[in-house]
Design goal:
Layout (H helix, E strand, L loop, with lengths): L4 H19 L17 E2 L9 E2 L6 E5 L1 H7 L14 E4 L8 E4 L11 E4 L2 E2 L21 E8 L3 H4 L6 E7 L7 E9 L3 E13 L2 E12 L10 E14 L2 E14 L5 E5 L5 E3 L17 E5 L5 E5 L4 E17 L2 E26 H12 L8 E6 L17 E29 L2 E28 L6 E7 L5 E4 L5 E27 L4 E24 L10 E29 L2 E12 L3 H4 L10 E13 L3 E23 L4 E25 L2 E15 L2 E6 L2 E6 L11 E11 L4 E10 L2 E2 L7 E2 L2 E11 L4 E8 L7 E3 L16 E6 L4 E9 L1
Parallel strand pairs: 6-9
Antiparallel strand pairs: 1-2, 3-8, 4-5, 6-7, 8-9, 10-11, 10-44, 11-12, 12-13, 13-14, 14-19, 15-16, 15-43, 17-18, 19-20, 20-22, 21-24, 22-23, 23-24, 23-26, 24-25, 26-27, 27-28, 28-29, 29-30, 30-31, 31-32, 32-33, 33-36, 34-35, 36-37, 37-40, 38-39, 40-41, 41-44, 42-43
């Protein structure tokens, strides 16, 4: 079905009709549920002396319990929240480096939501430029459940969380010893061991230990281990006479592949396909020839690039939580986290793709004279110099990629502290549950980057090419490249900085009547960033044209010292007019302050304080037949900045491209589960929205004349207007066997703000099964992307995201989802 307004409306109507018709079944046909979903206790984005359930909550929240999490078996943090409406998630880059776009806020990575572990941010800024929070966190069996808040008061209790917070909640040790061991294998050479064990150890203390180890070759096999490593954690806790205390230590040493775009083309029917000779579901340009490379640097040194490192994170994290009853109904809640994180992030980035002949023609016109005695240029293989690249169809395509060999080193030391004082005040039949909080975060970060360009043929595990000059007899007389390097040092950065944040916040939950609750809050926050960035110089290293224009440091440092502050607020109400249903509404005025990433490689940047207005109103209903939530939302995002680097192959440079605009998004979120009969249920979530740019206009010079670009009301990049996920499941053999499918649909999206390059709608089908062989032993089977969908999640950011250079191109770079894969697991509880 074509993705038209009519088809979207029909799909929405079908989803709605199915939900409500299923809910209309007789209640005696449904299974007996001990409690409804509205009875679940909420711990995220709220604070108070009393517990609060979902039925009493005045904002949108999705809970993913232990069983649901295991049946989904997400391969990444980003995959774990694909069942959350209002979130568009992109996990095609592998286990880390995902993207979440929430409720019409058009920023990449985790720039609009914060990632929490046990209620404490994994890192203060979850979008720390080349270090998203999902790179510093791994999901394993020490995590029991997930709570996801969309909008609401998340920005009052957490920094850098304007669109929500994702809270991974660890297991708690009970009064008796218990544990589990889980072993998983996959058809991409996956071997993974998870374990957790918790036990009382005397004196009221309890100890929990767990973690995972994993190795695999990757769904897109680069020819070496794609993912390798794991983590260990230990938690010591005690229930005190007037509170509780816990200490948690976790160490992670894990490296994961960074999957990037692949060459694609548009066929004669207008359909997008992988380049001939390239496997779109399983192929990757990275391979043995680009696994270990040495790049020449200024001063005679070399930069060793090891692509088997991928994104390698070594992190030690220490957390402390303390809750204490101060007496006279006053309570203290303290949460503290210190972490050290060392990240090496290596990748083979496809900067541009073109025919081999076009590359020869371009360089013949510009640089043939740099090879004395040459009358023509040829492409030849580095590992076999006598093999000439056939420009008429090598590998079935005749294409060549100009690839970026990029290495980024980024150590970060961080301290986070959150202190809250709480008290509940009673006034007759009314009450105010008040929290006063103080938040502090301090981190230091270094940043070093070095990149060079290489020429690669287009095939799985691409081979390096040299661009050589030949004489009239076809003999090689020289080369424009150096063992595949087209240009050394096209990127270079050396910078260091530190950030200091202080915030004060206040919240009040006012119980007006037993049915009506009003809650509000405000947060004032100030951030100070300081640091330096070394300036750049271009040097000629000699010996090859590839080393003629190498970027390096010039020994001159630009320093910065900036402070910013802002106040945000929220006000919401919840009317639980029935034990089974209620209404809520909320308005939030929030912000995201400039941060260290704004300056660390751009010390003279003009800071933009981004402000947002978020509105939502929803209905929730839960009984034995159905859990149903419907939320209408509105997002206005002010001064969103677009800053990306456009690669120019002719000059071997990346040029910054910047723009600013506002956005407005109206939307509807649906989620829930239907239980029409005891042995069958359907989970669902859907997002229908109109995400638009407002005021996105700028002027650029074309052929020495100014040209106005007007992208008013264009669709936000990479955000679909329609997306949904339906998960039907059956429970057989007295619930010992569960089988479920998931059907995911993502509507049409665009690569750039100009809406000039389209990403087609796509769908994905997954399957999972659980069989409880005994009370202790459970067996699992998973099939991801069962029908090998080739859904594209992004185009080529290096072609520009304001107005893509790929417009009209028949061959381009794009990143599809991972191909079909299978996993099986056995879990033993004791």
């Amino acid at each position: 079905m074509r993705d038209t307004p009519l088809s979207r409306a029909l799909r929405a109507a079908i989803v709605g009709a199915f939900v409500f018709s299923a809910a209309a079944h007789a209640q005696d046909a449904a299974p007996e549920k001990k409690a409804t979903d509205l009875d679940n206790v909420v711990v995220t984005a709220r604070s108070g002396t009393d517990t609060r359930t979902k039925s009493e909550t005045s904002y949108s929240i999705t809970t993913i319990d232990e069983d649901r999490l295991r049946m989904q078996a997400p391969t990444s943090v980003t995959e774990a929240v694909k069942s959350v409406p209002g979130f568009w998630v992109e996990s095609s880059g592998g286990e880390a480096s995902g993207n979440i776009r929430a409720r019409g806020i058009p920023v990449d990575g985790y720039g609009s939501v914060n990632l929490l572990e046990d209620g404490i941010p994994v890192q203060h800024d979850p979008a720390l430029g080349y270090l998203n929070a999902d790179q510093a966190f791994r999901l394993d069996e020490t995590i029991e459940r997930v709570e996801v808040v969309r909008g609401g008061p998340s920005s009052i209790f957490y920094s850098n969380a304007p669109a929500g917070a994702i809270n991974f909640i660890p297991r708690q040790v009970g009064d008796t010893a218990e544990g589990l061991v889980k072993y998983t294998v996959g058809n991409y050479s996956l071997n993974r061991l998870d374990f957790w064990y918790g036990t009382p150890i005397g004196g009221g203390w309890k100890l929990g230990v767990g973690g995972f180890w994993r190795v695999d070759d990757g769904v897109r096999r680069p020819g070496f281990h794609a993912d390798d490593g794991g983590q260990l954690r230990a938690t010591l806790s005690k229930q005190l006479e007037h509170g509780d205390v816990s200490f948690d230590v976790k160490h992670m040493d894990d490296k994961v592949a960074l999957y990037l775009g692949i060459p694609m083309y548009t066929d004669s029917h207008g359909d997008i396909r992988p380049a001939p000779g390239f496997n779109g579901n399983y192929g990757t340009l990275a391979g043995p020839e680009t696994e270990n490379l040495d790049m020449r640097e200024a001063g005679g040194g070399t930069y060793h690039f090891d692509n088997s490192e991928g994104t390698h994170v070594k992190r030690t994290q220490v957390s402390f939580k303390f809750n204490h009853d101060l007496g006279d109904d006053w309570k203290l809640a303290e949460a503290m986290r210190y972490s050290t994180t060392d990240t090496q992030r290596n990748g083979v980035f496809p900067n541009a793709v073109g025919t081999g002949q076009s590359i020869i023609d371009q360089d013949s016109a510009r640089r043939l004279g740099l090879v004395p005695g040459a009358t023509a240029l040829q492409l030849r293989y580095v590992d076999n110099p006598v093999q000439v690249f056939n420009t008429n169809g090598q590998n079935g395509n005749g294409l060549v990629v100009t690839g970026g060999i990029r290495g980024v080193t980024m150590p970060v030391n961080e301290f986070i502290n959150d202190t809250r004082v709480l008290r509940k005040f009673e006034f007759g039949e009314q009450s105010h549950d008040v929290t006063l909080g103080y938040y502090h975060a301090n981190f230091e970060q270094d940043f070093d980057r070095y990149s060079s360009t290489v020429l690669l043929d287009v095939r799985d595990n691409a081979r390096l090419l040299d661009l050589v000059g030949v004489d009239a007899n076809g003999n090689v007389v020289g080369s424009l490249t150096d063992h595949g390097y087209y240009g050394y040092g096209y990127e270079w950065e050396h910078a260091s900085g530190k950030s200091n944040t202080n915030a004060v916040y206040l919240s009040d939950e006012w119980q007006v009547t037993p049915e009506l609750r009003i809650d509000g809050g405000a947060r004032w926050e100030k951030v100070t960033v300081q640091g330096y960035t070394e300036g750049k110089a271009t040097v000629d290293l000699g010996g090859s044209p590839a080393a003629a224009k190498v970027l390096t440091g010039n020994g001159q440092f630009t320093h910065y010292d900036q402070s910013f502050d802002k106040t945000g607020w929220t006000l919401g109400a919840n009317w639980q007019f029935s034990p089974r249903q209620g209404l809520f509404a909320r308005w939030t005025s929030t912000f995201r302050l400039p941060n260290l990433s704004t300056y660390i490689t751009s010390p003279t940047a003009t800071p933009v304080l981004q402000t947002m207005d978020l509105g939502e109103a929803g209905w929730k209903y839960s009984d034995r037949l159905v859990d149903m939530y419907a939320t209408a939302f509105y997002t206005k995002y002010n001064n969103v900045g677009f800053s990306n680097y456009v690669f120019d192959r002719n000059t071997n440079t990346s040029t910054p491209q910047t723009g600013y605009a506002d956005t407005k998004t109206y939307g509807l979120e649906l989620e829930g589960t239907v239980y029409p009969v005891k042995w069958f249920d359907v989970q669902f979530n859907a997002t229908l929205q109109q995400p638009k740019y407002k005021g996105l206009r700028y002027t650029e010079v074309v052929n020495n004349a100014p040209v106005l670009r007007d992208y008013e009301d264009n669709q936000l990049i990479r955000v679909p207007r329609v997306s949904y996920r339906i998960v039907p499941g059956v429970n057989l053999l007295d619930n010992r066997l569960r089988l479920q499918f998931s059907y995911e649909y993502e509507g049409k999206r665009y690569v750039d703000t100009a809406n000039s390059v389209r990403l087609p709608a796509y769908h994905v089908v997954n399957f999972s099964a659980r069989y409880d062989a005994t009370q202790q032993l459970s067996l699992y089977l998973y099939a991801d992307n069962l029908f090998n969908s080739l859904g594209l999640t992004e185009g080529n950011p290096r072609a520009g995201e304001l107005a893509s250079n790929d417009v009209g191109a028949t061959t381009f770079i794009a990143r599809p989802i991972l191909g079909r894969s299978f996993r099986a697991a056995a879990m033993y509880r004791f």
